[in-house]
Amino acid sequence: MSSVTADHVPASHGHDDHDHRPHGWRRWLFATNHKDIGTMYLIFSFSMLLEGGVLALLIRTELFSPGLQFFQPELFNQFTTMHGLIMIFGAIMPAFVGFANWMIPLQIGASDMAFARMNNFSFWLLPIGAILMTASFFVPGGANAAGWTMYAPLSLQMGPGMDFTIFAVHILGASSIMGAINIVVTVLNMRAPGMTLMKMPLFCWTWLITAYLLIAVMPVLAAAVTMLLTDRHFGTSFFNAAAGGDPVLYQHVFWFFGHPEVYIMILPAFGIVSAVVPAFARKQLFGYASMVYATAAIAILSFLVWAHHMFATGMPVTGQLYFMYATMLISIPTGVKVFNWVATMWRGSMTFETPMLFAIGFIFVFTIGGFTGLILAVAPIDIAVHDTYYVIAHFHYVMVAGSLFGMFAGAYYWMPKWTGRMYNEKLGKLHFWSSMISFNITFFPMHFLGLAGMPRRYADYAAQFTDFNQIATIGAFWFGLSQLIFLFLTLRCYAGHGEPAPAKPWEGATGLEWTVPSPAPFHTFVVPPVVK
C-alpha cells in the first residue's frame, strides 16, 4: 500500500488563509479547524498525563517502604483510583483523538473533519469532565476510592466524590462517542478521489475500527454507571446484594465495556507504528491487507473475552474454559501484526531516528506485555495472581509501553508537520533511552512482586517486598522526570526553534500528509488531490 502518490496537490492558499482565520482566543474557543482541535486535544491529554503521573508518584512514594508513611489508606485508594481514571479517560483516549483529528484528514486528502462544530463541542466537554474528576478530591469524603473499575458494592458506599466521577465518565464518554462518529463519517465519506479503503494508511484503518468499538461500548459504560447512580440515590438495587441485587452483574456489564476499551487504547498505536516502521525501514509495510484483517479480528474478538477479568468470581468451569480459549485466540491477530512489523524491518535500509526508536521499543515491550497477558489468560494461574502486582505489571507493559510509546513515536514522526520545525534529535534519543530504561526498572520488578503474592491497591505491605518496591519507586520518579524532556522538546519546536522542516523530512515516508508544506497550512486540500 504505502506508495500512495498524489496526482496534483494544490499549493495552499498562503495569503487567503489569513483572511478567514480567526485570531486570539476566538481561534481556540470556537475552533472548527481539525488541526487546531487536534492540537487542543494533544495539549489537554498531556496536561492530564502530568496530573495522572503526579498521582502515580504519590502512590510510589507511599510504597517506598513498608508501613504507612505519608497517606492514610483511604487517601491512598483515592490516588490509585483517580490515577487509573485520569490516565485512561483523560490522557490516552483524548491523545489518540488528537492524533486522529490532526492526521486523518491529511492522510485521506480531506479538507477537514466531517462535523467541524461537533468536533469543537466534543473537545470542550473534556475539560469539564476533567475538572469534575479533579474537584472530587475536595468534596466531603474525598474522591472515588472504589478502584478505576468502580466495583459495586464499594462504589455504592462512597461519598459524593463518586457522583462526580459518574458524571465525569458520562461527559467524557459522550465526547468519545461524538469524536468516533466524526471519524467514521470522515473516513467513509471524505476520502480523496482514488483513495480506496484498501489504499488508506493503516492509521486511518485502525482508527476507523477503533471508532466503531467506541460507538459500541461507551453506551454500555454509561448504562453501568447510570445503574450505580440509581442504586446510590433512587432506591433501585441492581448491584446491592442486601436488597436482592447482584454485584457480579456490575462486573459483567463493566467488563463488556472494559475489554474492548483496552483495544480502543492500543489499536491507534498499532496504526502509528505501522506508519513509522516502513518509513525508517524504507520498505513498504509487509502484509498490508493482513494487517487490516488482523485489526478487524482483534476488534471482533474483543467483545467475546470480557469475563477473563472475572475468573476469581466463581464462574462455572465451562465459562472459565470458554473465556480462557477465547482470550488465547485474540493473541493470534496480535501476533500477525508483530510478525508483519518485524518482516517490514527485515533487510530494510534502517535508520534509527527517535520515531523509529520508539516504534521498535513499542514492539519489544508491548510483546512482553502480550505474553504476560497470555499467562493471565490461563484461568488457574490467573486465580493465583488475580489482583496482585503481576496484573499491574502486565497492563502497564501494554498501556504505558504500548499506548504511550506508540504516541511518542507518532509525535516525533509528525512533529515537523505540526510545527514546521525539526526537533532536537539528541534530546529525542535521550528521551527514548531514559524512558525505556526507567520504565523497565519501574514495572519489571512488579512481575516478581505479584508472583510472590503482593496484592495491588494496598498502602502497606510485608517487609519481604521492600527491595523490589524501592527499585520500582526510584524507576517511577526517573520515568516521570524523563517526560519533561519531551515537554521541553515540543515547546521548543512550537516556539519556532530548531531547523525549519521540509515538506517531507523523512526520506522513506509515504502518504498525502507529506505532500503539503510544513507546518501544514490552516486550509489543506481545498481542491482534493487525486490519488493514483
From TrEMBL:
Subcellular location, record wording: Cell membrane; Membrane
KW Cytoplasm (keyword) present: no
Main subcellular location of this protein, as a coarse class: membrane
Membrane topology listed for this record: Multi-pass membrane protein
Function statement: Cytochrome c oxidase is the component of the respiratory chain that catalyzes the reduction of oxygen to water. Subunits 1-3 form the functional core of the enzyme complex. CO I is the catalytic subunit of the enzyme. Electrons originating in cytochrome c are transferred via the copper A center of subunit 2 and heme A of subunit 1 to the bimetallic center formed by heme A3 and copper B.
PANTHER family: CYTOCHROME C OXIDASE SUBUNIT 1
The EC number(s) this enzyme carries: 7.1.1.9
PROSITE patterns tied to this protein: COX1, COX1_CUB
Pathway given in the UniProt record: Energy metabolism; oxidative phosphorylation
Similarity field: Belongs to the heme-copper respiratory oxidase family.
Catalytic activity field: 4 Fe(II)-[cytochrome c] + O2 + 8 H(+)(in) = 4 Fe(III)-[cytochrome c] + 2 H2O + 4 H(+)(out)
UniProt protein name: Cytochrome c oxidase subunit 1
Gene Ontology process terms (BP): electron transport coupled proton transport; oxidative phosphorylation; respiratory electron transport chain
Regions crossing the membrane: 37-59, 79-102, 123-146, 166-190, 202-229, 262-281, 288-309, 321-343, 355-379, 391-415, 427-448, 468-489
GO molecular-function terms, A-Z: cytochrome-c oxidase activity; heme binding; metal ion binding
Chain segments carrying region Disordered: 1-20
Gene Ontology CC entries for this record: plasma membrane; respiratory chain complex IV
